Protein backbone atom coordinates (compact mmCIF):
# COMPACT_ATOMS: atom_id res chain seq x y z
CA UNK A 1 0.00 0.00 0.00
CA UNK A 2 2.94 2.37 0.00
CA UNK A 3 1.80 3.88 -3.30
CA UNK A 4 -1.43 5.22 -1.75
CA UNK A 5 -2.06 8.35 0.21
CA UNK A 6 -5.26 9.19 2.02
CA UNK A 7 -5.34 12.55 3.68
CA UNK A 8 -6.48 12.37 7.32
CA UNK A 9 -9.83 13.66 8.42
CA UNK A 10 -10.35 17.36 7.83
CA UNK A 11 -13.62 19.17 8.39
CA UNK A 12 -12.85 22.83 7.80
CA UNK A 13 -12.80 24.16 4.23
CA UNK A 14 -9.34 25.71 4.72
CA UNK A 15 -7.82 22.38 5.82
CA UNK A 16 -9.58 20.43 3.06
CA UNK A 17 -8.31 22.91 0.46
CA UNK A 18 -4.85 22.95 1.97
CA UNK A 19 -4.57 19.17 1.85
CA UNK A 20 -5.35 19.21 -1.87
CA UNK A 21 -3.18 22.17 -2.85
CA UNK A 22 0.36 21.72 -1.63
CA UNK A 23 3.63 21.49 -3.46
CA UNK A 24 6.68 19.49 -2.53
CA UNK A 25 9.83 21.55 -2.95
CA UNK A 26 13.14 20.13 -1.76
CA UNK A 27 16.67 21.23 -2.51
CA UNK A 28 19.35 18.77 -3.66
CA UNK A 29 20.75 18.32 -0.15
CA UNK A 30 17.29 17.50 1.26
CA UNK A 31 16.61 15.04 -1.56
CA UNK A 32 19.96 13.31 -0.99
CA UNK A 33 19.11 12.95 2.70
CA UNK A 34 15.74 11.39 1.86
CA UNK A 35 17.38 8.96 -0.54
CA UNK A 36 19.59 7.65 2.28
CA UNK A 37 16.89 7.55 4.98
CA UNK A 38 16.18 4.15 6.56
CA UNK A 39 13.50 1.94 4.99
CA UNK A 40 9.96 2.48 6.36
CA UNK A 41 10.74 6.13 6.90
CA UNK A 42 10.73 8.97 4.42
CA UNK A 43 11.91 6.73 1.58
CA UNK A 44 8.44 5.21 1.60
CA UNK A 45 7.01 8.57 0.57
CA UNK A 46 4.45 7.56 -2.06
CA UNK A 47 5.63 9.84 -4.85
CA UNK A 48 8.79 7.98 -5.80
CA UNK A 49 8.22 6.30 -9.17
CA UNK A 50 11.39 4.45 -10.04
CA UNK A 51 12.90 5.47 -6.69
CA UNK A 52 13.09 9.18 -7.50
CA UNK A 53 11.06 12.07 -6.15
CA UNK A 54 9.07 14.15 -8.55
CA UNK A 55 7.22 17.42 -8.27
CA UNK A 56 3.62 18.29 -8.87
CA UNK A 57 2.58 20.27 -11.91
CA UNK A 58 -0.67 21.02 -13.73
CA UNK A 59 -0.45 17.64 -15.47
CA UNK A 60 0.68 15.79 -12.37
CA UNK A 61 -1.13 16.83 -9.21
CA UNK A 62 -2.76 15.21 -6.22
CA UNK A 63 -6.28 15.83 -7.46
CA UNK A 64 -5.82 13.89 -10.68
CA UNK A 65 -3.30 11.21 -9.70
CA UNK A 66 -4.54 7.63 -9.41
CA UNK A 67 -3.14 4.24 -8.55
CA UNK A 68 -4.13 1.25 -10.69
CA UNK A 69 -5.33 -1.61 -8.51
CA UNK A 70 -4.89 -5.30 -9.35
CA UNK A 71 -8.39 -5.44 -10.86
CA UNK A 72 -7.61 -2.52 -13.20
CA UNK A 73 -9.63 0.02 -11.22
CA UNK A 74 -8.06 3.48 -10.93
CA UNK A 75 -8.16 4.75 -7.33
CA UNK A 76 -7.58 8.47 -6.69
CA UNK A 77 -4.65 8.83 -4.30
CA UNK A 78 -6.06 11.93 -2.61
CA UNK A 79 -8.94 11.13 -0.31
CA UNK A 80 -10.95 12.79 2.42
CA UNK A 81 -10.94 10.83 5.67
CA UNK A 82 -14.27 10.73 7.52
CA UNK A 83 -13.41 8.58 10.57
CA UNK A 84 -14.72 10.11 13.84
CA UNK A 85 -16.07 13.22 12.11
CA UNK A 86 -19.06 14.83 13.74
CA UNK A 87 -22.35 14.35 11.85
CA UNK A 88 -23.05 17.85 10.48
CA UNK A 89 -19.34 18.57 10.06
CA UNK A 90 -18.74 15.48 7.95
CA UNK A 91 -21.67 16.21 5.64
CA UNK A 92 -20.36 19.70 4.94
CA UNK A 93 -16.75 18.48 4.67
CA UNK A 94 -17.68 15.85 2.07
CA UNK A 95 -19.71 18.39 0.10
CA UNK A 96 -16.89 20.94 0.16
CA UNK A 97 -14.22 18.36 -0.71
CA UNK A 98 -16.10 17.21 -3.81
CA UNK A 99 -17.58 20.50 -5.03
CA UNK A 100 -14.98 23.06 -4.03
CA UNK A 101 -11.68 21.17 -3.71
CA UNK A 102 -11.92 18.54 -6.43
CA UNK A 103 -11.63 15.42 -4.29
CA UNK A 104 -12.86 12.24 -5.97
CA UNK A 105 -12.04 9.79 -3.16
CA UNK A 106 -14.02 9.74 0.08
CA UNK A 107 -12.78 7.33 2.74
CA UNK A 108 -15.90 5.89 4.34
CA UNK A 109 -16.89 2.69 6.13
CA UNK A 110 -19.98 1.40 7.90
CA UNK A 111 -17.97 0.99 11.11
CA UNK A 112 -17.43 4.78 11.17
CA UNK A 113 -21.13 5.18 12.00
CA UNK A 114 -21.51 8.36 9.94
CA UNK A 115 -22.58 6.83 6.64
CA UNK A 116 -25.90 8.70 6.55
CA UNK A 117 -24.19 12.09 6.81
CA UNK A 118 -21.42 11.10 4.37
CA UNK A 119 -24.10 9.88 1.94
CA UNK A 120 -26.05 13.12 2.29
CA UNK A 121 -22.91 15.13 1.58
CA UNK A 122 -22.12 12.98 -1.46
CA UNK A 123 -25.69 13.21 -2.80
CA UNK A 124 -25.78 17.00 -2.38
CA UNK A 125 -22.41 17.27 -4.10
CA UNK A 126 -23.53 15.09 -7.01
CA UNK A 127 -26.68 17.17 -7.48
CA UNK A 128 -24.84 20.49 -7.39
CA UNK A 129 -21.72 19.50 -9.33
CA UNK A 130 -23.17 17.47 -12.17
CA UNK A 131 -20.80 14.61 -11.34
CA UNK A 132 -22.01 11.02 -11.47
CA UNK A 133 -21.59 8.46 -8.69
CA UNK A 134 -19.07 6.56 -10.80
CA UNK A 135 -16.86 9.67 -10.82
CA UNK A 136 -16.21 9.13 -7.11
CA UNK A 137 -14.29 6.42 -5.29
Describe the structure.
There is one protein chain. This protein is mainly α and 137 residues long. It contains 4 helices and 4 strands; from the N terminus they run ααβββαβα. The strands form 2 sheets. A two-stranded antiparallel sheet has the order 1-2. The protein has a two-stranded parallel sheet with strand order 3-4. The longest helix has 15 residues. The chain starts with 12 loop residues before the first helix and ends in an 8-residue tail after the last helix. About 15% of the residues have low confidence.
Task: Kindly summarize this structure in a few lines.
The protein has 137 residues and is mainly alpha-helical.
Fraction of residues in H or I helices: 25-40%
Judged by helices, strands and strand pairing, the structural class is mainly alpha
Strand content: 5-15%
- Mean pLDDT, as a whole number? 76
Distance between the termini: 17 Å
Overall 3D form = globular
The major sheet is characterized as: 2 strands, antiparallel
Uncertain parts: 39-58
Number of helices: 4
> What is the H-and-E element order?
HHEEEHEH
Strand line-up of the largest beta sheet? 1-2
What's the alpha carbon Rg, rounded to whole Å?
Answer: 16 Å
State the total count of DSSP E strands.
4
